[in-house]
Amino acid sequence: MFSFSLQDQIWKKIIDKCNLATVIVDISGSIVYANKAAEKILGIKKESITDRVYNSPQWKTTDLDGNPFLEENEPFTRVKKDLAPVHNIRQFIEWPNKKKILLNINAYPLLDGEGKMSHMVAEMIDITANYALIREREEYHRNYRFLFTNMNSAYAFHKMLYNSQGEPIDYIFLDINEKFTELTGLEHDLVIGRKVSEVIPNIFDSTINWVQTYGKVAKSGKPFTFEQYDEILQKTWLVNAYSPQPDHFVTLFLDISDRKKMEENLRRSESKYRSLFENSPIGVAISQMDGTIIDSNQSLLNMFGYTIEEFTNLNSLDTYANSVDRTQTIDKIQHNKSIRDFEVKFKRKNGDLFEAIINTNLVEINDQPLLMTSFQDVSKLRRIEREKKNMDRKVLTTQKLESLGILAGGIAHDFNNLLVGILGNAELALMDATENSGTRECLNDIIDSAKRAADLSQQMLLYAGKRQIQDKPIFLNEEVSSMENLLKRLVSKNASFDISLSPELSSIRGDPTQIRQVIMNLILNASDSLDGQEGVIRVSTEQKYCDEAFLAHSYLKTNLRPDKYVLFKVEDTGKGIEPDILPKIFEPFFTTKEKGRGLGLSAVLGIVQSHKGTIIVSSKKDLGTTFNVILPIYEQINKNDDIKTPIKEITGQKLHYSVLLVDDEPSVLKVGQKYLSRMGHKVDTANSGTDALKKVKNSSQSYDLIILDLIMPHMDGFTAFQKIRENSTTLPIFISSGYTEYDIEDKFKDYSIAGFLQKPFTYEEILTMIHKWEDTKNTKKL
After folding, report:
1. Regarding beta strands 755-758 and 733-737, do their DSSP bridges make them parallel or antiparallel, or are they unpaired?
2. CA-wise closest residue to 629 among 645, 647, 611, 644
3. Could you tell me whether strands 21-26 and 31-34 are parallel, antiparallel, or unpaired per DSSP bridges?
4. pLDDT tens readout for residues 386-397
5. What is residue 389's predicted lDDT score, i.e. its pLDDT?
6. pTM of the predicted model as reported, rounded to 2 decimal places
7. What is the DSSP string of 483-510?
8. What angle (nearest 5°) sits at the alpha carbon of residue 226, between those of residues 220 and 227?
């Protein structure tokens, strides 16, 4: 262990290097004193500081939100009003060069003999660069207060009292710690605010004149350390006294009564050194210029995971995680003789890496140049910052994809309206074309293209999470098994296809067709990643408890709680996904394939979201990619549940109704009117919800049924539906929309609709819809 023979050297170094900015303000608010550190932190010379008042407009003070700092919140105002200290007042000031500095200010009053404030002392710290660490540092300060309360040294803070000639005559206890009470037997509540002559009446009978001794410290500001036997308390003290502010002094008492057999010089230096060094929450090391470690405190040993014997056998340069940090540290010491707030990555004994902020000073002890370095472990803070950054990225990605989903859904809706005109007119023309007409082939091509466009629109709705045709129990193993032969034909011929299905797998609930599309799209994506080369595609299912740490890797921000889930996993040994590409793979129309449309994975995402699940993707370049689809378990069902009764076949009966067709799109009205008229119905049209309502109320004829568009300007379909229902509770109303029936379920859950017509619709689909309604109506009559 390293020890010091000259006790005052360490204290001298600490005081000389003190960088706490301090100013003193008189009772009028004028700044009458500023130290060198204040000059540095306030950005102007000391002479300029003392030319100002505390609230001078030149400071341009603002609060943390950039608003002018209120006068009533100024430290001087509060201290003067309450005659009490204030702590952690944070305000921005502006330097003459327009640079803004965030200060943390602690201030307290200086009281005269009558208890009136004569001056205010303000201590300032520049926290501009560390504002993000304020909360953690506040926690640190709380721990520091705990250290003060529980430190091994007895601590007491006093105010000196003088007579009219300025001679010290007594002093008042302002604060003591628990160790002081333990060593002296003087209780906190019986001491604070009282004179020492009242607490210890025979204090002046002591062989040492305590009042005169401490009076010199309080008056001169020079620290004083001494060892003294106190015959009143019968203890030997190592006493350190210093003055933190005029007419005040702090005493640190260390009871060294049991160490009298030790050599005097060794005992004194070791007492002071260890009380500060060993109990510091900050790791500290003392080393030679070549990196040889001489001593370190326990905090540093805990930080690195070594014993003192192991650590002192190391060279400090060997603890760096990389050569770049090591080289920069050496350069800074050689050029500046010190290091300030330099973040370095170190290596623990167990090999773990961690970040720490170091501060190094070159000091001379016993005429030997040594490096004193403090280490503050910030690895936890950096991990929190990385996690926050990752969460922010997920939230941003979620918001971005939600916006794209809304856009895709809106485009699909408008697109479906346009397709009604294209598909409908082509069908009508085909109906009127002769069997041998040369235009039939062209019309069929138009119809096929329109249907493909409608499929594309449905994929866009899938991405938007707005398409769910069925809601039933799904046994994922059965779905995968039923597709196995098809999947083996679709994947690359050079790929090895492996399926592993967990026998104990609960069901999920949703749309089987969409789940099969997820399976298909992910496996095709895995096959494409092999790019025709040899490789392996593994498909597996399992039921797994997903904890918070696992769910945290979700591609999107999710509300899923830790629980058991059904997992569908697709792995490939392909080329992997570049890190800068990975966040974009689910965006619609984004593709890295020459012939891809960029809707496969976006549809997967939309389907998984609509099934209240999530996706975790991991990929390494040239090693492959893994997609984990996580879906909620649906319990208490069996394979025979939710079997639907087949729909009755549509009869060839031709029906004749009076129909009101409502839509704001002219092409939809024209096609719908022609379809319905060809079926034999009498058709009336309305181009808005308002127009439809007028016709229902005022028309001389009554309608047998209404086909009502959902999305219209001024009065939308839902509002029109409600108002028509107020006029007629039995009139059959069909809802038509470019969105899906799934989208309107919540809106119409409290109402009965006759049916739903998905745009773009065909002649056969509108005919089928009316037949189904007719069959239902006839069934109810039976």
Report:
1. parallel
2. 611
3. antiparallel
4. 888 877 776 666
5. 81
6. 0.38
7. HHHHHHHHS-TTEEEEEEE-SS--BEEE
8. 155
